[in-house]
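Entry type: protein chain
Record version: 2
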Amino acid sequence: MGYKSIGINHLGDWGTQFGKLLAAYELWGDEAAVREKGVEEMTRLYVKSSTRKRKGSQLEDLGRAWFKRIEDGDEIALALFDPVQAGHHPGGHENLRSLGHHV
């Protein structure tokens, strides 16, 4: 038919899942554990939040509120979100930049 398909990966598309991750960090997170274990600890927090969430639950509301704070440019939310966005490992931002993502 002559159409050209393009695949696009939205690396900067945060989604509500990051708000839920920050809510889990607020409720059960430990800064030292996140610094030491990085993605492994953040995954543990996200899984914990996913197993406890229910429609209309406080956790669901907290997740939406944290995501709104990220969207609104709240300094605290962005400071917490920055390591998540970078993959919380050395070179995370550099990896994203190498893919043409602006961080």
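Comment: The radius of gyration is 16 Å.
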